[in-house]
Amino acid sequence: MTVTPRHDGRAADQLRDIRITRNWLDHAEGSALIEFGRTRVLVAASFTEGVPRWLKGQGTGWVTSEYEMLPRSTNTRSDRESRKGKVGGRTHEISRLIGRSLRAIIDTSALGENTIVVDCDVLQADGGTRTASITGAYVALADAVADARSRGLIAKNANPLTDSVAAISVGIVGGVPVLDLDYPEDSTAETDMNVVMTGSGGFVEVQGTAEGAPFDRDELNALLDLAAGGIKTLTALQQEALAGEARARRV
Amino acid sequence: MTVTPRHDGRAADQLRDIRITRNWLDHAEGSALIEFGRTRVLVAASFTEGVPRWLKGQGTGWVTSEYEMLPRSTNTRSDRESRKGKVGGRTHEISRLIGRSLRAIIDTSALGENTIVVDCDVLQADGGTRTASITGAYVALADAVADARSRGLIAKNANPLTDSVAAISVGIVGGVPVLDLDYPEDSTAETDMNVVMTGSGGFVEVQGTAEGAPFDRDELNALLDLAAGGIKTLTALQQEALAGEARARRV
Amino acid sequence: MTVTPRHDGRAADQLRDIRITRNWLDHAEGSALIEFGRTRVLVAASFTEGVPRWLKGQGTGWVTSEYEMLPRSTNTRSDRESRKGKVGGRTHEISRLIGRSLRAIIDTSALGENTIVVDCDVLQADGGTRTASITGAYVALADAVADARSRGLIAKNANPLTDSVAAISVGIVGGVPVLDLDYPEDSTAETDMNVVMTGSGGFVEVQGTAEGAPFDRDELNALLDLAAGGIKTLTALQQEALAGEARARRV
Amino acid sequence: MTVTPRHDGRAADQLRDIRITRNWLDHAEGSALIEFGRTRVLVAASFTEGVPRWLKGQGTGWVTSEYEMLPRSTNTRSDRESRKGKVGGRTHEISRLIGRSLRAIIDTSALGENTIVVDCDVLQADGGTRTASITGAYVALADAVADARSRGLIAKNANPLTDSVAAISVGIVGGVPVLDLDYPEDSTAETDMNVVMTGSGGFVEVQGTAEGAPFDRDELNALLDLAAGGIKTLTALQQEALAGEARARRV
Amino acid sequence: MTVTPRHDGRAADQLRDIRITRNWLDHAEGSALIEFGRTRVLVAASFTEGVPRWLKGQGTGWVTSEYEMLPRSTNTRSDRESRKGKVGGRTHEISRLIGRSLRAIIDTSALGENTIVVDCDVLQADGGTRTASITGAYVALADAVADARSRGLIAKNANPLTDSVAAISVGIVGGVPVLDLDYPEDSTAETDMNVVMTGSGGFVEVQGTAEGAPFDRDELNALLDLAAGGIKTLTALQQEALAGEARARRV
Amino acid sequence: MTVTPRHDGRAADQLRDIRITRNWLDHAEGSALIEFGRTRVLVAASFTEGVPRWLKGQGTGWVTSEYEMLPRSTNTRSDRESRKGKVGGRTHEISRLIGRSLRAIIDTSALGENTIVVDCDVLQADGGTRTASITGAYVALADAVADARSRGLIAKNANPLTDSVAAISVGIVGGVPVLDLDYPEDSTAETDMNVVMTGSGGFVEVQGTAEGAPFDRDELNALLDLAAGGIKTLTALQQEALAGEARARRV
């Protein structure tokens, strides 16, 4: 693959610097501060016994997510959704995407009647906040599951995690398909696609949008190839983060 | 393509009965009652001069959409979002999708500083409400543009419509890729994908979700092939609907 | 009665064309599309077992209603109440009126601990939306009761319907009392009155409002006479609609 | 008229003790504490220059009203609407009724581009809160108009008040038509009617509701006769209250 | 202490005229209309059996408060919080302060699993609404406790009231520490402090705020001395109000 | 002062480890991550030209603050205020306290018609979140002012900062007055006081609350002495943080 003149010097198929700081929080059952370049998302996975009313008595658990941006995570300050009294469409949409992505690798029967809520709060935004969220959320989720198991809240021989999951954005910028768009790229892309895949390489979500002209099948294929490569790297970084010993949580 | 034993007897690549009743409303600048089988969506396109504050003075127009389901459009009644005091995530998400799809075929400079709001209200839901909405919305939008032109609100030589747009769902049901899922199919699909394409065959949106197991590249390709066929038929039906003379609107 | 020069040529005591399309919906226990001229209201009656908490254990049922207008049912588009985050006073007021009107002909003991919610959604508005709603609601309610009986959810020998109910508007327009005002008449009426009556001729609601000068006792009497005549015709049309065989509902 | 055995010993056509304390507040342009027996409503009329945006530039003014009950005005405490985050249907309905009643005796051209908001806050409720509100509101409104005139905000030779307005409830209790129902009567009435009339005897609003069995024309007539008598007395009491000298307001 | 030239002629350590009208309401278990000069607050204490869910089964009761201002209690009308759909920060803050102040003199075990809600509605505001609220709230609370005891809802030998509580504002106005600021003083004070104390002289709350320049330790001490004197007088007035016989409540 | 057996081994007058990481964010005009032991607050100061409508044309600026806790900042997860659709009383109260504290050291005339919003988001809570917020907010505010000056948005010779400001909590725990309470101390304190002081030693806010028994004048004095010592240290740490060179902001 040729090196394109991306504004920050990256190759077309190159991720930004990715950092996963596991157990960034003291209270949460699982947590991570994940950074995709300047984008920083604080992820916290909260495990609670019991399930929402509509699931009671079925023997299965529930995993959901809430995403939100701090008001000054962006270049100009946005009003807080709490003050506006309503959650915006974009916030809802991304929260739902993260939740679906996590449920794709969860065996809710093995989880038992327990709930895990994964909060993704964007401390700083520079493009790719939803993909960073999903990628970090898996790490926090894995720790929350491990914590519950060690406390006997999930049976030792049950494994609610059926795979890992990660996400990356791809897009066509200046006519060239590129991986992991930062904000300047994202805001000028002709086509923007978010791809969520399992560690074993299956597709969980493909969301492609023509921002300018419609895209064709060849472009779609080029983007999917790029994404698959990026996901492979992210999966390795997740495994690496989880390989160390988790810091003891403060209950 | 072989005929699969779909519960309603359709072939895998067969659409439901599609009906577009143009100008179903007397007041709206453009309107249509669109039916995909039992799914019925009432679409109204409202043209108003002027644009939202954040667009003023730029010489470009705005097209947006709002989607909502009537409380008893579904098999069991849902609470009204107006009574709950908040719009749900799914409603927001679909509204945004319709808006983006329409903007993909609109030249906002040619539209001038005018706004078109396209309301899609689901009177009866049986799967595919968002794809029926987009497909019907194009018809209503085209009529609203024509009406504005005939009234001199858009320059006669300007054409804000750069193409047509339609949408269809595809999915893998019982291991078989099928076109235009109804509710029983949709609720049991392993993979569900909504595809929005222009009349000239470009992709505007591709949204695929693994509801059960992740899907692979071959399945993705089969689904895209099915979708392209369906869109072709829908495009022809849109053209047919628009070919007749529009009923005079009551101002 | 003399023929007054009403703008659409009707006699002072003449209703608009009334159409009741029973079972317009496939899912609802009872439904009707009712048209008073250009005014079109979609009514759906939803039967559910059980009652709101405050009624539990008393052996009586509950009937209530929700009314709403689609954003482009009117000549210029109105914002959705769901997006504004609150239900307006007029919407509340009409919803409450419809609910009271229906409860006037319901024996809640015979209904048992069951609830029927009647949704009235105005697809197109040209005056008289509340009276069309009440008139159509009775048809949908009667079908929902029949459906519940046929399914054994209400005892076969119990009859929750003690009478029928219908409604019509009357008003003084250009000094002349007229029946069933359309929007142009309604917006210029000096006095506007909505009358709800049972099939056997009793008053359920009388709501008269002086829009311009106060009205006197003679005018009030003339309006009530007109209304009684209109209600008689509407009652016959309701019976006719209910006389046919109901289309099988899709459960 | 015969004396009926009402639970508090009143004759069928007898009002409760009515007290109007004018200028109960120091700040408001007009105010009154009005009592219908135990029912106590604090009314404040606020005059401000200018009109809502939708009325600007038409040279006419605006009069509106807001009604609300204190949480412990009733026998058991109700939650505050401010805490519930939404205004209930009954509150909206009564606010709108008061506003319409006041506008019936206002010449908005004579008022000029000024707004008067009349707040009716129920300090204690024992039936008839809306009729007490309207009756007290007229007194506060008249004082606010006089205050504006004395300050030159309304032309000296313009008179925005075209008449006076008052309201009373009537109903059928235990088969007998009675005037000015208190709460025990109101909660057991078969028919309940609120009548708003001008000082010169014209009808502004007639709102009759069958709470139990439908009512007939004779009953309606008996109720309207009772109401007319009550309004006459209330009108005299309003004039008496306004005849004295107004206490100087503290600006 | 020297007599300062306060705008209303009061000495620096002099309260306004204080009036407590006990049992102003007929329904509430305890109530008072309290006046600090022109400031008038209607206080109602509502006793209900049971406690909020989070307290259930612990054998202890709950006392809380809600404060609100009528829209025209102030010199210019404010919008209702119920119409705005949200409760403002100041309203929340004062409601919480009143609740904490009352709980400081309540033995929740002696109260048993019962709840008392104290509503403080400002009918007219002229400075000191929160201190008048707390001072009046004690009187209403004491009556509600006595009422519950007389009805056997609290054990006769249990005394939930461990002390009395009252509140007063102090501040530095024109360089001079003064007691019980009215609105003109409050709006020009350099430092403003609200002090809540028990009848036996302990501090419950001290909330001092530098509105202009920061204040020093000597000023703080002078203000606390003034407050202690004012509280002593208020405590005597509370006892006097409670010494008479309570008017029989209307259940 | 004697060393008391605090649960974490601190002396009664000893602060927790305080860390101020200046310029933690890339976009904000001023920012800091401030840590009081385990308590971590992310502060962002956003400078914008212009003022709210009610201040326009007066030549003065505005400084305000919004405080919020992330859902899993605490030991058990709390619901988001954005999802609940309303901001809680405690959140409002602390936001207002921070805003007042900052305005105490701002010369709004020197600021010109500009607005600074200081967001304080609690990433992890272990007691003292409001005092950490105020202390960190000053650092972010100072940087935002410096940034605006360097860009010429504030006149070079104008200095909107008249002093510095910091805050600390003190309380009586187990009968002993202690400085800078962490969560375990805070939740068992008999008296809890938050003190806000300027760098030059004046009081800006004193908020003392008896959580258990009322406190007396001697206890109040002991707490104020402790606070003054703590503020001195915090002021030095603020100066130290601001002494270094600020990292270049990314516009």
UniProtKB/TrEMBL annotation, chains A, B, C, D, E, F:
Residues 71-90 are annotated as: Disordered. Phosphate binds at residues 90, 128-130. The keyword tRNA processing applies. InterPro entries: ExoRNase_PH_dom1, ExoRNase_PH_dom2, ExoRNase_PH_dom2_sf, PNPase/RNase_PH_dom_sf, Ribosomal_Su5_D2-typ_SF, RNase_PH, RNase_PH_bac-type, RNase_PH_CS. Pfam families: RNase_PH (PF01138), RNase_PH_C (PF03725). Transmembrane segments: none annotated. It comes from the Bacteria. It is an enzyme of class 2 (transferase). It catalyses: tRNA(n+1) + phosphate = tRNA(n) + a ribonucleoside 5'-diphosphate. One of its GO terms (biological process) is rRNA 3'-end processing. Its EC number is 2.7.7.56. GO terms for molecular function: 3'-5'-RNA exonuclease activity; tRNA binding; tRNA nucleotidyltransferase activity. Residues 14-144, 164-228 form the Exoribonuclease phosphorolytic domain. Keywords: Nucleotidyltransferase, RNA-binding, rRNA processing, Transferase, tRNA processing, tRNA-binding. Residues 77-90 have a biased composition (Basic and acidic residues). The keyword Kinase does not apply. Homohexameric ring arranged as a trimer of dimers. HAMAP family: RNase_PH. Phosphorolytic 3'-5' exoribonuclease that plays an important role in tRNA 3'-end maturation. Removes nucleotide residues following the 3'-CCA terminus of tRNAs; can also add nucleotides to the ends of RNA molecules by using nucleoside diphosphates as substrates, but this may not be physiologically important. Probably plays a role in initiation of 16S rRNA degradation (leading to ribosome degradation) during starvation. Belongs to the RNase PH family. PANTHER family: EXOSOME COMPLEX COMPONENT, EXOSOME COMPLEX COMPONENT RRP41. This is Ribonuclease PH. The gene is rph.
